[in-house]
Amino acid sequence: MLLNLQQTINALTKGEIVGIPTETVYGLAGIITKEDTLKKIFQTKKRPSFDPLIIHVSNQEQVENIFLDINENMLILMKSFWPGPLTIVSKKSSNISSLISAELETVAVRMPNHEKTLKIIKAVGPLAAPSANMFKKTSPTSAQHVLENFNNKIPVFNGGDCQIGIESTVIEVLDEEIKLYRKGKITKEEIQKVLPHIKITEEKSLASPGHMKDHYQPKKPLYLFNTYEEKNNFSSKGIELNLTQDAGLSARMLYRNLIELSQGPIDFMYFIKNKYPKNEFWDAIYERLEKASSEVP
Ligand code: TXA
Ligand code: MG
């Protein structure tokens, strides 16, 4: 069922969970002060309780009640990249439910760059929202994807197709150092530009509790090959996952293409790596492709 803005606000206020749009991917949202709502998010996604949720805010005051402390570096990052696809992890204040933080001392927060969703958050308060897919499956980039993911059982606010198409960059901001847990549109280089003196370390992705090797899995296997020659040695079958030379456009198409190709009468999908450029934004796309792919049998 699709909800309008007011129905979405009413449903969230009552403690229901609703699919909401952001500029990255759709989230499965609930207000952060209701334990039952938070539990419902985990149950609906079949997400293990050790995988913490991101809190979505619409203004700075809300952030002050979520983090224990906001240092100068965090202020610069928020000013530079919010609203936008950067998630900041830092020590949480004691009033934040341990369901959200999965018993960690830290919590993840971002301000999404989506006008309607910011209106919703302004009306109901901060929202906890993981991506609106079943655990380990492909993230949704349209309202329709969310309806399909949960067999029409979860109401969705339709805010159009996601403009970025892959999840936010996740960083933990410490006093002297930044740890990069998940790559995204906002690159290490861009962060370094606004904080030239801080050390940024790429963490092995498993350092972030929800980062599994087999994430983003589509319904049909995806195999990665370096070249067409490698692919043809494997099989003449399959259908190619085609992206473009432009990272922004490719990120936007990635999950939609994986979802749509998987629905066709095919054995497997394949992706040819040497056709595409190499840079930090592309690394974020490759990271998703690696995790979405299966071992070539
Ligand atoms: O773009 C996005 O971030 C989307 C939209 C809906 O905002 N959300 C999203 O949420 O991708 P989710 O739950 O699918 O991914 C959140 C990631 C998880 O990998 C989790 O491990 C990491 O953020 N995370 C959350 N809290 C953390 C913490 N305290 N420390 C380290 N990593 C954390
Ligand atoms: Mg996710």
Annotation, overall tally of beta strands: 14
N/C terminus separation: 40 Å
The succession of helices and strands, N to C, reads EHEEHEHHEHEHEHEEEHEEHEHEH
Major β-sheet, in short?
9 strands, mixed
Would you write up a description of this structure?
The protein has 297 residues and is α/β, with parallel strands linked by helices. The chain has helices at 5-13, 35-45, 60-64, 72-81, 98-101, 115-124, 143-149, 188-194, 228-234, 247-262, 280-292, and strands at residues 2-3, 18-20, 27-31, 54-56, 86-91, 106-110, 127-128, 156-157, 169-173, 177-182, 199-202, 222-225, 239-240, 269-272. A hairpin with a 6-residue loop joins strand 2 (18-20) and strand 3. Residues 130-131, 139 line the site of magnesium ion.
Question: How would the blueprint of this fold be written?
Answer:
Blueprint (H helix, E strand, L loop, with lengths): L1 E2 L1 H9 L4 E3 L6 E5 L3 H11 L8 E3 L3 H5 L7 H10 L4 E6 L6 H4 L4 E5 L4 H10 L2 E2 L14 H7 L6 E2 L11 E5 L3 E6 L5 H7 L4 E4 L19 E4 L2 H7 L4 E2 L6 H16 L6 E4 L7 H13 L5
Parallel strand pairs: 1-8, 4-6, 5-9, 10-11, 12-14, 13-14
Antiparallel strand pairs: 2-3, 3-7, 4-7, 5-6, 9-10
